Amino acid sequence: MLDGRVVVISGVGPGLGRGLALRCAKAGADVVLAARTEERLEEVAKEVRALGRRATAVPTDIRDRASCERLVRAALDAHGRVDGLVNNAFAIPPLQDLLDVDLAAVRKGFETNVLAALDLTRLFVPALVEARGSVVMVNSAVLRHSRPTFGAYKMAKAALLALARGLSTELGPRGVRVNTIAPGWIWADNLKWYFDHLAKERGVPSRQIYEETAATIDLRKLPEPDEIADAAVFLLSSYARAITGQCLDVNGGEFHH
C-alpha cells in the first residue's frame, strides 16, 4: 500500500509510535522516526530495518523550531522526498476539571498537541506538495465523550481536529490530503500498567479489568497498536486518494460517530 514512499512519524515511542513505524514499513514505506529519546528511536529503527526497509532516526523536540527544521533537512537529505507525515507526538493535558485547572498547564498542552503539529506540518508542506502526499493527525476518542477532568484534554484534541480540517481545505487544491484517526483504548504497555494498578487497588486479576472494559466495546476487545496503525496506513495510501478532511474513529465500536 505504501511501496516506495517515505513517511515521517513524530512521537515514536514503544506503543502506537512503534506500531505506526512497523506497519508503514510492512506496507512498503521507508520511515523517518522523530522523538526526543534517541535510544528508543534506534530500537524502532532496527526493527524497521529488519523488515527490509530504510529507517532514519532523528532526535527531535517538536516544540522547538530549529529541531523541527533539522528533522526536515534530515528526512530530505536521507530520502530525497517525503510522501507522508503522521503527527503522533502527544503530551497529556492536566486531567482536572476546567473550573480548577491551571491555565498555564492548558497552554503548555496546546503547544505540543496543536501548535507544534501545525508548525511541523507547515515545514513539510513543500515536500508534501511535490509528492502530492498525505498528512495524518493522531487524535483521540475523547472527541466523542464529555467527562469530568477531561475538559482540557478534549479542548486540545478538538483544536487538533479543527486544525486538520482547516489544513485539508488549504492544502487540498495543492494535492495534499489531511485526515485524522481517533483511537480509543490502546492495548499497549502504558494501559497494561494502568490496568495492573487498578487491579491491585481492587484486589482482582488484571484480566478482570480488561474484560470489564472490553464489555463496553462492540467487538469486546481493546484495539492494539497495529490495528490503529493500519487505519493510518490506509489514509496515507492511494486507497484513500479521494478522502480528506475526515476523522476515522478506531475504537472497536466503543463510540459510534
TrEMBL record:
<dbReference type="Pfam" id="PF13561">
    <property type="entry name" value="adh_short_C2"/>
</dbReference>
<dbReference type="InterPro" id="IPR002347">
    <property type="entry name" value="SDR_fam"/>
</dbReference>
<dbReference type="InterPro" id="IPR036291">
    <property type="entry name" value="NAD(P)-bd_dom_sf"/>
</dbReference>
<protein>
    <submittedName>
        <fullName>SDR family oxidoreductase</fullName>
    </submittedName>
</protein>
